[in-house]
Structure formats: C-alpha cells, structure tokens
Amino acid sequence: MKQAITNYLKDFDRAFCQQYILNHCQEEYQKIQETNQRLMDNRFLFNGNWDMEPCPHEYRLQPLNWESFFEDDPEWAYMLNRQEYLSALLLGYLVEEKVIYIQQLKYFILHWIEHVPTFHPQSLTTRTLDTGIRCFTWLKCLLFLIHFDVIHDTELETICQSMTKQIQFMKASYIDKYTLSNWGILQTIPIIACYYFLSDKLDIEEEYQFSVQELEQQIQVQILEDGTQFEQSILYHVEVYKALLELSILIPEKAIFLKPLLKKMAYYIEMMTGLDGKTVAVGDSDACATQDILTLSALFLNDETLCSKSSTIDLHTILFLGRKGIEQWKQWKSQPLLPKAHFFNNSGHVCIKSPSSYFFFKNGPMGSAHTHSDQNSFCLQYQGQPIFIDPGRYSYKDNKERMFLKSALGHTGCIIDQTPPEDITGSWSYNRYPQHLFCQYQTQLNNHYIEGAYQATAYAKSYLHLRKILMISDKVWFIIDDLQCQGKHTLATQFIVSPEVVANPQQLGKLQLISDVPLEVEPTLISKRYNELVTGQKLIKTQTFSNRIIDYTIIANQDCIIKRLPVYQSDGQLLESAFAFDIRHSEWNKLVLFVNDDIFKGEKLCLVDGIKMRGKVIVYDKQTGISSRLKS
C-alpha cells in the first residue's frame, strides 16, 4: 500500500506547491478558504464548476443529517453524500498546515460511516452512482493523509472496512444498463483505483476483477468512434472523461492504453468550448468553464494545443500533478486561437471555432435520458459575445420548467402547429422523439456548409425538417429551413437569444438579421446553471404553408450588404425554389446559390448575376473568379 502511494506522491513537493499557491493562486484559493469556513460550520454550498447538480443557496446542517435535502430536490442530498467538497479541506491543510482541516475532513467521513449503517440503491445516501463517487473522493484524500501521516491506524481501518462494504454493495447492486451509462464507469473506476492503492486493506478481489473486465466493455459501448460519450450531454461526457483521466494519472499502467482515447475525448471538450471559455450546454448540461479540465488534460497528454494558457495553473491540476505539473506549465507558451472545425459524425455535432466566432450545430442519434429534443439546433458566439444559446436544463424534477427546457419548444429550431416533434412523458422519458436522418459537413476556402435532417410527427402527420447552414468567411450565416408536411400548417421558427445581448428583430450585438418574414421578440426560459432559472428572450417568426415551405434567415456582420438575386436556368426559365444572394463586404464580394431541388426540367445550368453555376450550394468569389461547390 505505502509503496504505491509513495510512488504516486514522491514528486509532489508540498512546500513548492504551497508557495506557488500562496504567491500565484490567491483568488482561487480564497474561494477554497470560503468553502472551508462553511464546512467547519457544517454549512454546504454546492457551487463547484463541475458539480453535477449545483445549488446557489447555502444550507446549514445542525445536527448533521445525511438524508437532508432542500429546494424540494433530492439531488441536493446526492451532492451532499458524494462528499466531493472534501478536496477543499485537503487543499486547506496542504497550503495552511492547519490540522483542523484534516480533523473536519475525517469527521465528515467517520460521521457518515457511523450514521449510514445500511445501504440501498434507491436511498438518498447510497445510490450506487454516489457511492462510487464518494469512494473515489475518499481514496484521493486518503492518499495524502497516509503519505503525510495524518491519519491514525484505527481511523484508516474503519474507513477501509466501510469502503469494502460499499464496494461490495456496488457490485451486488450492479445491473446491465450501467454498461451503457455514466453510472457504470463512475463505479468501476473507483473500484479499480481503490484496489490498486489499498488492496491489502480491502476485501474486494472479486469486485476488482469484475470492474477491470466491465470497464473495458463500458468504454467500448459508451464512447463513440469520434471520441464523444454517447449520452448527448457534454456534462456527462466530462464526468466520464474526468474519471478515465484521473484513473490514468493515478495508475500509470492504465494510461498506456487509455491515452489515445483520452486525446479524442479531450479534443471534443476543447471543441465544445466557446469563446467565453465555457461549454455549450447541450443536453442535460450547464455552461461550465473548461480551463481546469483542459489544463490537466494538456499537461498529462503533453498537448499544448488543448487549451489557452492562463496566467496560473489551477488548484485541481496542482493536486494531481504537483510540482512537475507546475514546472511543465511554466515552460509552455501561450497558444494563439487558430481557426479550426470538426465534425463529430457519430454524435452529429459540428463545431467551428475562430478568433472571432464560435458555431455549434447538433443533429444526431438519441443518446440517454439526458438527451434533449434539440435536433437541428445551433448556438452562435460572435466577437466574444454569446448570441444564440442552448437554454440549459434547470432541474431534474418532474415540473413544467424541466419539460420545457428538454423540449424543442425551448430550443432554436422549427415548430409546426405549436406541437413539438417529441412527446415528453417525464423527467427521464419520451413517448416520441424526432428521428435523426443525417448530418453532413463540408468546408472549402473558409466556407462551411452543414446539412441536417430529421423526421417527426405533429397531430398524427409525419413531417420532414431539413436545415441547411452556410457560413462564409466568419461573417455571414445563411439558415435555410425546408419543411414538408401534407396539408395546411403553421410554422414557427425561433432563435434562443443570450441574456447578454438585447433581443432586437433586426440586430443582435454586431450582427444584423435578415428575413422575409418579420421576427418578433417573445419571452422564454433559460438556465445556465442547474437550479438557476431566468426569463430570457427569443426571436420568432410565424407563417402558414401548405404541404411544403422553404424559408431563410440570414445572420451577418453589420458591415455586410446583402441583396437577394433571381436564379435562372440557362434556357431563361426562372428557378423559383432556388435562393441566390450578392454579399458585399469591404474585403470581398461573393455570390451564393442554394438550389433546393434537383433540376429535372429544362437546362441544368444556372445563371446568377450573369455567372454560370452548377451545384446545389455554391459560393462564388467575384473578385478572384473562384467557385466553391459545397454540395453538388
């Protein structure tokens, strides 16, 4: 036991880390001190960056009762029993050398052991997910307590006996569906790590052997070939990734085969990070800052490109990598934000980043119950400012706010006859979900083209929504919506606006909006963090149609001048279903052509402003004469 712990912490260098934190991390460490002041008084505030279910309000437990919960939300009790807040007390001791922090840390652990004698998978205190997280938290604390000799043998024995019992309970309660769930990985990884460091004190040989085999299957089943975790939620992708990353740091032998996977998963997190440094809140997720997890990833994977270098290294990374991580960080140079784009084809996510804009599009297969009805939705940030956003999740309770934020009604997209394409029957269940048909992405000469389609049902009538998005030179976005549904219907096209900008039908920040149908401002719900809800605004336009409608919305830099042009076939026939535009900017002048149907009558060559074109999506540079055919 001690040899494995010594090998892990031999290069930590407490004195070096202590001085670095005191000299360079005062602001972040002050938050740790505030947390510790609360914990010393049994006051709890779950406001951590990656907390699964944070809560903005502080509550005091006097006396300490592990079945307590507030906000009428049992998730508060789950957060309490995971005990991830213990890391703050550990950091407080490492920096200030105050024994009271260690005493309080051990008090919380030993009090829990004494007052939670029985385990049940559905209880407030011992759900298997929370049990796995708690055991992992205890282990990561014990490594330091043992290494710095601040735990008595009797205390260690009591804790290890409880960990044995909890791990045996997890194995006995394990069910098949955990193989395809973050719940499974967040149980098997703690078991493997606990065995590696404490096998001489834990009676878990059978549980360990099971976990090793099961983790391999979990990874194979859950992690898609493009590196995304299947649940269609960036939050739970990060939770699974963090567990795999920490396992690799704790047990170097595991890193040998996990690193290729970790690199793909980390790259996805990087691409899901907007210009504001936070994740897109896709699915059951919050908008979370990624600097900490990407810093740890960059250092461990030795990949400077994963994150922009901040002025200091974060405390979470220091706790894992110690002096070596700090010195490695000092040697790195700040990386410029270069334009990059990636199509995660297995999940149906497209991410396009540049120094001045960020764009995310989603049309993919149904994931887990954490998936929202957000097919063909998108998010946009421009010049450092969120413009169109994902509305978030707010709660896991069965209430109207939860249902609305899961529904297409809460997302940027199209609604037919005021009926969403899904039927939500509960916080974790659907009776109907829009069927993903395809998602495609092409890029040429700084032009990006995305196309996504899904099939759904409204009032027992099946309909098809095809959305085409063309991004030009980081300054113009064309949104083409093509919907087909037999009969007469009403179409509402809506865009969820960030609370950080004033919702205006013609202009958002430094962007102008162009539409044949006037946009109007209406209220909507937005939740950037779990348990936090605001009334925001959306832009919406409504129009009627029979059988089929093709509509466009243009989002453009305010300096662009855009004019719609007619499209003719070379035999002189007007191609009514096609769209063409002339775009003028101080730096360039381009023509854009959208041909929305195959041309099966007349000549197949198109003429736009005297320019001959052939293809369904074309960008023509009038200055260079170069044409980009993004769809043939």
Automatic annotation (TrEMBL):
Keyword Signal in record: yes
Domain Heparin-sulfate lyase N-terminal: 4-246
GO cellular component: periplasmic space
Domain of life of the source: Bacteria
Pfam families reported for this sequence: Hepar_II_III_C, Hepar_II_III_N
InterPro entries cross-referenced by the UniProt entry: Chondroitin_lyas, Hepar_II_III_C, Hepar_II_III_N
Location in the cell: Periplasm
Protein name: Oligohyaluronate lyase
Organism: Streptococcus zhangguiae
Lineage, uppermost ranks: Bacteria, Bacillati, Bacillota, Bacilli, Lactobacillales
